[in-house]
Write a structure and sequence with these properties.
- The protein is an alpha/beta fold.
- Helix content is 40%, strand content 19%.
- The chain has helices spanning 22-36, 60-78, 97-110, 133-149, 157-161, 190-197, 208-226; strands at residues 13-17, 41-47, 82-88, 114-118, 124-125, 129-130, 171-175, 182-185, 231-238.
- The strands form two sheets. The chain has a seven-stranded mixed sheet, with helices on both faces.
- α2 (60-78) packs antiparallel against α6.
- It binds zinc ion.
- The site of zinc ion (ZN) has 5 residues, from loops.
């Protein structure tokens, strides 16, 4: 099924992802494109990424601090309006009231019209590997926070008492999906996606060239479907 093309939205965007480098890999092209077009693009990362190392002597607190710095640097490259990182440990993300509260709060704070996340129904990628539990969970959290959470005054009414207003999310863009219905042209933004990812130095044991090659292959392959140089694929849900 292909999504009908509509007028592009111009309002604020919130990316909701599990780990500090997920947004760049999954949707760095479109986030950069929207920021360059003048949309306010915010990012909320739900875990601190403190297990992202194969070195048994790596201090996890130090790694979390390093990854927070890398994430700020990457956000600058993408042109993001803000980035926040949660305190949940890497691989311990659960779809709890507390986590949903933090996402609903951020949707309401930035007045997000569009939420970008990963498709929580993606478990297997062909027979090559399977999706990280935090990725699946972060996708479900993003869905549950977007609807019925953020637009309904009976969800977290204490936020409204603090001055926030309910916020309807108009569309959800889910990356890392096996069921894409939309191919987004990111020509001119692929280099920015890679440059942002390159800021996550702690995760680049194999070098940025490795990512540049496989992400490039994906982006060129997606681009061929709509006759452009580079693209990213999503399952887009129009909720409005
Ligand atoms: Zn991840």
């Amino acid at each position: 099924m292909t999504r009908e093309s509509k007028e592009p939205r111009t309002g604020p965007v919130l990316g909701v992802f599990a780990h500090p480098d997920d947004a760049e890999i999954c949707a760095g092209g479109v986030l950069s494109k929207w920021a360059a077009a003048g949309r306010e693009v915010h990012l909320l990362i739900l875990t601190n990424g403190d297990r992202g190392s194969q070195d048994p002597s790596q201090d996890r607190g130090e790694l979390a601090a390093t990854r927070a710095r890398e994430t700020q640097d990457a956000a600058e490259v993408l042109g993001l309006a803000s980035v926040r990182i949660g305190s949940v440990s890497d691989s311990e993300l659960e779809n709890t009231e507390e986590v949903r509260e933090s996402v609903v709060r951020r949707i309401r704070e930035v007045r997000a019209e569009t939420v970008v996340a990963c498709d929580p129904t993606t478990v297997f990628f062909e027979n090559r590997y399977y999706n990280h539990s935090d990725h699946r969970t972060s996708g479900f959290v993003a869905l549950d926070a977007s609807y019925p959470g953020s637009g309904n005054p009976h969800f977290f009414p204490e936020q409204l008492a603090q001055g926030l207003e309910t916020q309807d999310v108009f569309d959800l863009w889910l990356g890392w999906t096996n069921d894409p219905n939309h191919v987004e042209d990111i020509s001119g933004h692929f280099a920015t996606k890679v440059a942002a990812l390159a800021k996550h130095d702690s995760q680049l044991a194999e070098g940025i060239r490795f990512f540049e090659e496989f992400l490039g292959k994906d982006a060129v392959g997606a681009g061929e479907k709509i006759g452009v140089e580079h693209a990213e694929e999503f399952r887009v849900l129009d909720l409005s």
